Amino acid sequence: FQHNCESKLIKILQDFPQINQIHPFYNDLLHILVDKNNYKLSLNIILKTKYFIKKFSKNYIKLLKYANSVYACKQLKKNVFGKICSNIRKIDSSLVFLEKIRICLKKLPSLNPCKRIIVLGGSPGTGKSSLLNKLTSSNIKIGNKDNESKGLSVGHFTNFFFKWQILDTIGINCKKIKKYNSFEMQTINAYVHLNYNLIYLFDSSDNNQKFCIEINAFLMLRKFFKNR
Prior knowledge:
alpha/beta; four-stranded mixed β-sheet; 54% helix; elongated
């Protein structure tokens, strides 16, 4: 029972990425989507619980050598099971929090930051998702009623034997960076941390006022991809 609990906790620690060992793109993306401090704290609590279970299990094994009856052995075993269960209950909130993070991480795009990347940028409703669907075999939903995507999407295609990853970003309008929501910050994170070729889209089909807003948004965002 003790070894089974330890192995389960070890598997949890191994399955979740270490903040300092992942690419800066995923590091900041994790910070945008979840509380990074609580994430590290939850992993630390599980690590301490694992060591605690291992420590007092060894101590109880030593006590078994001095047990003078079967009844005493059963009582020691009962005490060990009780302590292990009580410690597992104490980390219940951390386990629930990590499960929510696991679901969140599962929804992240399967993007390899070390391979060729094309980033599709632009304001909301400029056709980024439509272009992604045309270039790749993806079937990305075009957006909600406001024609805005609510997450990063990745497609793949091959051109002259070169494999490319195409990242569809969330559209950003012209406003101060402090007012960006978590979806728009994902786009800023991609602009800053990835090594990519940029295709920035404009939509001039509606009216000149909207086109001017898109131009202003591009000029404002240019500082994030000035070397692209």
